[in-house]
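BUG: 3D viewer hangs when loading the predicted structure for this chain

Environment: internal workstation, default settings.
Expected: structure renders.
Actual: progress bar stalls at 90%.

Input used:
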Amino acid sequence: GGIIGDTIWNAGDLIPSENSREIFTWVRQGPTREGRIFEWANLTGNQRTLISSKNIVDYIRGDQSNEQNQGGGLRNRDKLLGDIIHSAPTAVTKEQSTPPYQILPSPEGNTFLPYLANVRASRDDIVYVGANDGMLHAFRVDNGAEEFAFVPNGAFNNLSSLADPNYTHKYFVDGLLEAADAFFDGSWHTVLLGALGRGGRSIFALDVTNPTAFGAEHVLWEFTHNQL
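Structure tokens produced before the viewer hung:
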């Protein structure tokens, strides 16, 4: 067994201001399948219908100016970080364990050890966790700051309820996470797989090889199926 030490940081107290947060989502419209910055202007027509207004997008991003205690009509929040129930925090670090992929044939095997030495060894350590505020969060291990967040398309059905003053608890990004190294597009990457769990019927993949440079293009895919 072990002992619990002193608290080093509390991520709920360290969420950046709305305008400085890096938040992404996944869109599906016609033939389009891509990651985008989570802002009203970037949403599809269906996503806009589900979320209902720009004010609610801004609210989910962290804007508190339209909450009831500020004279608005949206639900008050003491903290921006939602509750975490079934999504266990998952650390993706420089030293994470990995199979000996160097035994694979070329080019996978020949490029794996250079990838460990030149790419993975220099990245920042991050803790990923899903929360019932509609997002997967990426928190820096060294200081607890949110590096980026991801709102799955599968969570949009209930996102607007988060701003309702009569909100009763719902699940959003509530599934387990798993990270592993994978070879695709000619090089090695670290991929984080996540699920909505009780929050919906989709799974998603993010390229977290370099989390401090994460962008919309690093949202790899989201898959939805009624039997999930």
